[in-house]
Design brief:
The chain has one domain. Helices cover 51% and strands 0% of the residues. It has 104 residues and is mostly helical.
C-alpha cells in the first residue's frame, strides 16, 4: 500500500496532499452557498437527519473503547461542521433570501 492510500499522506512533509492553498474569498463564499443550497433541499435535509441519527444522537455504553469514543466524536464534529457551513452560507444575501437552516 502506498502512503497516500492509507489516508495519512497529508501528514507527510513535502507531500502534495499536505500542500494546500488558502481559499480565495470567492471560493469560500461559493462553498458556503453550496452547503446552504444543499441543506435547503429535501434530500439534503434527509441526509442530515440520517447523519445526525448515526452520530449526534448515538449513545455508547460504558464499556466502549477510547478509540471508538474518539472516532464517534470525530464523526459528530464533521456533522456539526457541515451544519455550520450551511448556516453561514444561508446568511449570504445573494442566495436568494433562503431562511436559516432548520436543525431537526
Amino acid at each position: 500500500m502506498y502512503a497516500s492510500d492509507s489516508g495519512w499522506a497529508w501528514f507527510e512533509e513535502g507531500s502534495e496532499v499536505a500542500k494546500t492553498e488558502e481559499p480565495t474569498p470567492g471560493a469560500e463564499r461559493d462553498l458556503l452557498l453550496a452547503y446552504a443550497r444543499f441543506l435547503h433541499t429535501e434530500n439534503g435535509r434527509r441526509i442530515m437527519r440520517h447523519l445526525k441519527a448515526i452520530t449526534v444522537d448515538r449513545v455508547l455504553g460504558p464499556d466502549v473503547s477510547e478509540a471508538m469514543l474518539r472516532h464517534l466524536e470525530g464523526q459528530r464534529q464533521l456533522v456539526s461542521y457541515i451544519e455550520v457551513l450551511a448556516e453561514r452560507g444561508s446568511g449570504h444575501a445573494d442566495l436568494g433570501g433562503l431562511p436559516a437552516i432548520a436543525s431537526n
